[in-house]
Amino acid sequence: MSAATPRRNHLQEEQRARTRSLIAQAALKVFSERGYVASSIEQILVKAGVSRAAFYSHFDGKLAVVMAIADDFEPAWTPVFRYLAELRDPQLPELMEWAGRHLNLHRSNVETCTLLTQVAALEEELYRKVSLQRDALIDMLAEQQPAFAAARQDNDVMLEAQILLLGVDQTCFHLVRHHLRDPGGIATRVMASQMLNFLRAHGTHERAGQ
User: Fold this and answer.
1) Confidence band, pLDDT 50/70/90 cuts, at residue 1
2) Considering its fold, how many domains does the chain have in total?
3) How is 43-109 classified by DSSP, letter by letter?
4) Most Cβ neighbours (<10 Å): which of 16, 77, 115, 166?
């Protein structure tokens, strides 16, 4: 009997994971269709086909679902910044490639990016989470890029790095949502140029101080 118990527990955990994923996916659809504020738990239950008890065994409300969606999305955007971190003395073409990858991430995940951007403007808890994720990106970039290493030593440079990354993310969001028009296709060049200016301005200073 004791040998069968781990098997049952494993299956139960798999079922819990599937239910959690089902609820999160259903919530994302409901939020996309109705907006975060206008959506209700009941609408999510109907879309997911789960009971209220099943929902509350995983989440304590709408915001908790959005926080989980943010966690689940992290593996999608981390490689975009790992690519940037691994560039050696990047020039405009390589940085345009990075900016293009960032823009394509938003295009491929419109519902998720829209939800996280909009809810972060409404819910302080999600805003703090996204901010901490951005700071973690700066830490990762600092391991390879001298300009971001300088940001960890200088509060003014850190603020500049945070504004730069926030601006790129917001630009991609508004381009995909067609709030910004880019008929000439220059958006990736503009974002890449801003990153290049930051890397040159502070990377040279960091190397000189070593």
Assistant:
1) very low
2) 2
3) HHHHHHT--HHHHHTT-SSHHHHHHHHHHHHHHHHHHHHHHHHH-SS--HHHHHHHHHHHHHHHHHT
4) 115
Q: Which domain holds residue 8?
A: 1-60
CA angle 185, 172, 140 (to 5 degrees): 120
Count CB neighbours of 69 within 10 A. 20
Whether residue 120 sits in one domain with residue 66: yes
Backbone angles phi, psi at 57, to 5 degrees: -75, -15
Instruction: Please report which confidence band the pLDDT of residue 9 belongs to, taking 50, 70 and 90 as the band edges.
Output: confident
Question: What torsion, rounded to 10 degrees, do the Cα atoms 110, 27, 137, 90 define?
Answer: -20
Look up residue 189 and give its amino acid.
Answer: R
Contact 194, 167 (CB under 8 A): yes
Do both 44 and 73 map to the same domain? no
Given a contact cutoff of 8 angstroms between Cβ atoms, the answer to whether 146 and 203 are in contact is yes
Q: Exposure of 108 by Cβ count < 10 A (0-12 exposed, 13-18 middle, 19+ buried)?
A: exposed
Do 203 and 126 reside in the same domain of the chain?
Answer: yes
Query: pLDDT for 47-67, tens place per residue?
Result: 999 999 999 999 999 999 999
C-alpha to C-alpha distance for 138 and 154, rounded to whole angstroms: 13
Mark whether 99 and 176 lie in a shared domain: yes
